[in-house]
Amino acid sequence: MGWIAWIILGLVAGALARWLMPGEDKMGWILTILLGIGGAFVGGYLGSLLGIGSVSGFNIVTVITATVGAFILLFAYNKLILKK
Question: Which superkingdom (predicted)?
Fold first, then answer.
């Protein structure tokens, strides 16, 4: 995937993770995109470990995998950084 596709995937995955996570998050779009891109890496790594697949293109499985990874990162961010 190209850089623009990673940014778009990051934005979609980060926004979905923020929408699914209960509570209020005080982060901007740049941090959301970075969270989503990091989530794509985490989701792709976990997906390849579990045999589900990796983040290799822009399709529904990739968006779900990246969103799960972004959700994990957002949960960790809220617990470790914000200490809620």
Answer: Bacteria
- Contact yes or no for 43/55 (Cβ under 8 A): yes
In this prediction, residue 52 carries a pLDDT of: 72
Which residue in 3, 1, 10 sits closest to 73, CA to CA?
10
Q: What is the pTM of this model?
A: 0.76
* Residue 6 pLDDT greater than 70, yes or no: yes
Q: Tell me how many domains the chain contains.
A: 1
Burial environment of residue 13 by CB neighbours within 10 A (0 to 12, 13 to 18, 19 or more): buried
What local confidence, expressed as pLDDT, does residue 55 receive?
A: 62
**Residue ranges making up the domain that contains 70:** 3-81
Which stretch of DSSP H or E encloses residue 16? helix 3-20
